[in-house]
Write a structure and sequence with these properties.
Blueprint (H helix, E strand, L loop, with lengths): L2 H4 L2 H27 L8 H13 L7 H26 L4 H24 L10 H21 L10 H13 L10 H28 L4 H21 L10
Helix pairs in contact: 2-6, 2-8, 2-9, 3-4, 4-5, 4-6, 5-6, 5-9, 7-8
């Protein structure tokens, strides 16, 4: 099979869908960090560092908030991992189910914040229930993205994508603008979309969603995730989905 035939329409559809989900992950992190007490509900690595600072008694970081986000993320990833595997093993459409679960949790988090804080930010009030629901949603996202297995597009972090892109360009500079195979171009597109997607999500969320208030911003993102889930049900993203 040639490189050209190895890249299918479903590859590009998956790349587009995962790119959009990456933008939404960046938006969630912008909202959670700026309005929910300086935690990253999607970027789990950041919370691990915050927890380390808190336990060391440095940086004026409370233990409870990063601990809540880590616990919620792990629980969401664990439960969704089991559920999605069972669906996949039975030949059921697990990807839209995972996205729907994420959207419901985000909407729940947004509703909780609206009920408790109105259109204002959560800030330093430590609304652990709202933070926990959003972290659960991002744990579900992590499991869903992992099972989709789109190389270079975990949707939640950009460090690996940056390293992969830089290394690929340095190792094959002649193919940067011309001479690259379809698979190389697809890989570079995915790495670039991951980095740019998180940046755009953070920037657009800061400019457009954060002014709405935490609750409404989360509800908007939940609606967008549902739209992606519906698209995934109507348009096949894989030639054949099977359990692994």
């Amino acid at each position: 099979m040639s490189d050209a035939s190895a890249v299918s329409a479903s590859d590009y559809r998956r790349t587009a869908v995962m790119g959009l989900l990456t933008v939404l992950a960046g938006a969630v992190d912008a909202i959670s960090f700026l309005t929910m007490g300086h935690v990253f509900c999607a970027l789990a690595t950041g919370n691990v560092l915050f927890l380390a600072f808190a336990l060391a008694g440095e940086g004026d970081v409370p233990v409870a908030r990063p601990a809540t986000t880590i616990a919620g993320f792990v629980l969401g990833a664990a439960v969704s991992g089991v559920v999605l595997k069972r669906l996949a093993d039975r030949g059921r459409p697990w990807f839209p189910v995972g996205l729907t679960g994420e959207a419901l949790l985000l909407a729940g988090g947004g509703a909780v914040v609206l009920l408790r804080h109105g259109t204002g930010p959560v800030g330093d009030t430590s609304d652990f229930f709202g933070i926990g629901l959003v972290s659960l949603a991002m744990g579900v996202r992590a499991s869903t993205a992992l099972r989709m297995r789109v190389p270079g597009m975990p949707t939640l972090l950009s460090q690996t994508a940056i390293a992969e892109l830089v290394n690929d360009v340095l190792n094959r500079p002649a193919g940067l603008l011309r001479g690259a195979s379809p698979l190389q171009r697809l890989a570079r597109t995915r790495w670039t979309a991951t980095v740019v997607g998180i940046f755009l999500g953070g920037a657009l969320s800061t400019l457009l969603l954060v002014p709405l208030g935490t609750g409404w911003a989360l509800l908007v993102i939940a609606v967008l995730v549902v739209i992606v889930a519906v698209f995934a049900m109507l348009v096949p993203l894989e030639k054949r989905q099977q359990g692994t």
